[in-house]
Amino acid sequence: MNSRSIILLILIVPVLFSCGRKTDSNADKSIFKYNESAGIVNLDPAFARDQAHIWVCNQLYNSLVQLDDDLNITPSIAKSWEISEDGINYIFHLRSDVYFHENKVFAGEKRKLIAKDFVYSFTRLLSKKLASPGAWTLSKIDKTENQEFSIYDLNDSTLLIKLSQAFPPFLGILSMQYCSAVPYEAVEYYKDEFGRNPVGTGPFYLKTWMESIKLVLRKNHYYFEFDGDQRLPYFDAISITFIIDKMTAFLELIKGNIDFISGLDASYKDELLNHDGSLRGKYTKKLKIIGEPYLNTEYLAILVDSVMVKGKPLDNLKIRQAINYGFDRDKMIKYLRNNIGVAGTAGIIPKGMHAYGGKSSYGYSFNPQKSRTLLQESGYFDLDEKPEIKLVTTADYLDLCKYVQSQLGELGLEIGVEVSPAAAMREMKANSKLQFFRASWIADYPDAENYLSLFYSKNFAPNGPNYTHYSNPLFDRLYEKAILESNFEARNLIYRQMDSIVMTRSPVVILFYDESVRFVQKDIQGMTSNPINLLNLKKVWRQN
Hints:
Blueprint: H1 3-18, H2 24-27, E1 31-35, H3 51-60, E2 65-67, E3 73-75, E4 78-83, E5 89-94, H4 115-126, E6 151-155, E7 158-162, H5 170-173, H6 184-190, E8 204-210, E9 214-219, E10 226-227, E11 230-231, E12 237-241, H7 246-254, E13 260-262, H8 269-272, E14 287-302, H9 306-309, H10 317-325, H11 329-336, E15 342-343, H12 368-378, E16 390-393, H13 398-410, E17 416-419, H14 422-430, E18 436-442, H15 449-452, H16 473-482, H17 488-505, E19 508-521, E20 524-525, E21 541-542
Parallel strand pairs: 1-12, 16-17
Antiparallel strand pairs: 2-3, 4-5, 5-7, 6-7, 8-9, 9-12, 10-11, 13-19, 14-18, 14-19, 15-19, 20-21
């Protein structure tokens, strides 16, 4: 190669690299920006119960394992693990290069994570004093004769957990943010203020937090994960704003002031999307859509406990079934959701789960004639004075509930719709004060047991998630059989049978299975989607 060629090559190579993935030095100048309209009040992973908090905690902390975009369980702090044949003992082998974020509680020293930190973190999560909403995640862990939890550090890099009985979903549950590692020094130092002063092992650490205004995370330069030979994360910082109005947040996206928004809001859906779900032409050069089935089932719930609703119209199975047959879900998705979502014509298990039944025999499709026949057989039309059927919803879902109300009204079924604040609804449904209400269930971990636990009789609210108070001895027996079944396919067959039993009795009216949809600036690279809509920013970068 002559000298001229060498000079030319020297000039070209940097240009080629600048057009590809950003190097670490370039990433140090970049900030990823997004808005969180729901607000954030606590960054303790033990209280990461909603999406807003889960998203930030996922940047700050790590658990033993994590999920990839296909919901496969992959290593995180644990590099490998073994499960005993009886499904009781779990042994985790931990990485030796994981450090907590730098913090004054460590007196200027780099604090290496060891197995004892998980013994502390899990015992803390389970403590009644903490009262974490995530304590249930570890409820299958056995107790010793001294009532201590069976969590042991065999050495600094080996953790043993013993369950009280086999529970195949347990490994997936450990991927949840609730199960993150936290250092005892920081928790003991900050005490009740740990949620305002989080210390984890994640790809980012908390830099500044001005409540209701802005939250800034900075790059953890000692993070243990790599993408090839590049230490993650790529971005130097994450900046989160708290604009409550979703239309205003959408305008910030269009102006380029934030890098993405998640979900579809009625205030901007028709401005952004065509009825077929594609981007309107004026936005195609600026934005891209990333989406896939989301493990979220949207439904109407009916309190079916006969003691609570005796003599009420919804206590009548035929009326509940008539509601299920009485509205067109496909039309609802097309015109109210711009084709974002899948019509809920199967059971409670959503599309994206392996146990999803598709358009199976136990679901409900639009059949107005059958709906009218069921209403006739129920005796509803023979009543001189129709009893009140009140559907309670939050403002965000008023259009869907009004649609159901309108379609059922055409069949002669009179339903009123009442709007209630989200906090008030949560309290009323937990205390069985709502007979008919809009609800949703997002999977916490990749197993259909998530959804079927909503109908297990031992989970009656307020002590569990069975807000409908549905009870069926056969269903309960199958539930208990399924959670002991280690064979994946055999377990899914039981799940489908259970789903069928529930839908036959109609304690719920499935509206749709959601889709995870993100509207992202075109220059953002590496952002993916997943069925639980978890925000992973460690591999995201900005293209020049």
